[in-house]
Amino acid sequence: MKITYKWLKEFVEFKHSPSELSKLLTMAGLETNVIESIDDDHVIEIDLTPNRSDCHSVIGIAREVSALTGGRFKYPDISVKESDGDINSLISVAVEAPQLCPRYTARIIRGVKVKPAPSWLEKKIIAVGLRPINNIVDVTNYVLYEMGQPLHAFDYVHIKGKKIIVRNAYKKESLTTLDEKKHNLSEDSLVIADSERAVALAGVMGGGDSGVTQATRDILLESAYFNPISIRRTSRRHGIFTDSSYRFERGVDNEGVVAALDRAANLIADLSEGKVAKGRIDCYPKKISYPQIDLRISRTNRILGISLSMEQILNILNRLMFTTKVIDDDKIKVNVPSFRKDIEREIDLIEEVARLHGYEKILKTIPSSKVSVSASTRNQVFEKEIRNILISLGLTEVINYSFIDEKYFDAINISQDDPLRKTIKLRNPLSQNWSVMRTTLLPGIINTAVFNINRGIYDVGIFEVGKIFIPNERLPVEKMMIGCAVTEKVEKKIWSKGERDFYYLKGLVESLLGRLNIHDMEFFPVNLSYIHPQKGACVKINKEDIGYLGELSPAAAEGFDLKEKLYVFELSFDKIITKAVTEKKYTHLPKYPSIYRDIAIVLDNNIKSDDVYRIIRDTDNSILKEIILFDYYEGKQIPDGKKSLAYSLVYRTDERTLTEEDINPIHEKVIANLRDKLGAVLR
Questions:
Q1: Whole-prediction pTM
Q2: Mean predicted confidence (pLDDT) in 18-23
């Protein structure tokens, strides 16, 4: 926001120099710089936060300066010299979307002469960074900066049917704006239309067909209050960012709409030799109310750490043009003016008191607080433990947003009837990329992996512990999940081949569960559209499904434009911790040596190694301590449809050294069970 020093002095009396004024406004929370001097005047630039929409004008800054300095504030002249001809006989206005346009006003100026603006006006327009166009347009820009109210001037002769309609755009309707660009309008965009077509994109930019030209003789001048959210969406949808849309997005003073209209109409008439038609159109069906807030003196002093009297606080509020009424010795009823959109609660008023009193006058003290120590919950303990385990396994933790784009369901090849597509949609998402609450961690961790791969980091091993959100009747069901993604390639190739595979991922899961003292895990075939059909598994503990692991399917990889192989798993944190054993049992190291017996068997290809493992394990649990699969073979010596698996069996007891007589019966029983139950043959 730019203004000039002399322009500001037209509306408030003060004696501070430009640099002193800049420092004063900065100390009050409005970051200000004096950037240049033009014709013995100084341009002042003010960096405003989005909530201070009232300061996007010379009048708004003048109010601040008046409150800070005590100087008398002067409002600009808004009197209008009207001529003959009632405006109601010249134009009619219908607001069909009052929720998007709560107030619409208009005046007509007839017999204007479009020509360059006088030098005093052009200098002010140039000083704030605009380009002079003509006396009509320059006046609307001048009042925009002076009073903070966007205006638009239509060429009255091009208003078909002499009727203005404020409505939503029709389906497939288009508009060519003043910048000569054609826009296909959305049905939720607000437009200003005549009886035949749209003539302006409300609050954003006018149409090219109804703009002011050298041939213009009669002006329809518009001043309105539009819904800020509607203007923001329209502006971003069409990529049009103007001074008008900037102010409407932040909220203009709906009670200042008429004053700005009259101010501009009078200036246009004076500078163009035109005449203002009698009366004005003012469509304001439902008056907007503003909050009444109770401010407590005791709470104000307690929060700020100061001791102001009621008289001092009343003085500050009145200087800021708040209307006040004393309720009792500790309470003031404050009526918020229409131009202060940022004041909604008592704490906002306390901030205003602090600003005007002076932040530098508030002593710096360390706040006192009670520190309580509480024990971590079981979930918190396990969450920390799981993070530590995964980090120790060489993975890096990532934290992704809980919001995703619905397009990711298509990217990872999830079918339309999959429960994962039943999401919670956000009413007002920050962007389309974050439009729904996630029902799986998979899109986030894949995106993170792809982000790194696209930047030349091919050795990726990441995990996330976070919540997913399942729709419910009232509040969503939040479930904690553990997700992981690892790439095939490894940067440091020392003894290994430098590649990871499905078994590496399976090992990560087994290590995680094993260190949580969960040993009854099983792996079964999985049928998921986003997991490779031959390189995936469902993970179960005591027959309960806790998640899946595997290589990302080719279709899912293509959806993310992923050229590298990516291995992922997603496990239920909530189910895992119910199975985890908190108590750890310690035993002494074996006193007596172990005896190893190897066994190689040939069996059908469709028999899983896990089935063999369970049969061997169930044969004996007294001296058979370990079962290690060390070889898998298919080749010339093995019949078609068969495979060879070789296991190392470890026998041991803590009581004595085992003999052949101890081991042989059990070992023979193992072989017999494998033969009888699986049809296995010794190789």
A1: 0.60
A2: 90
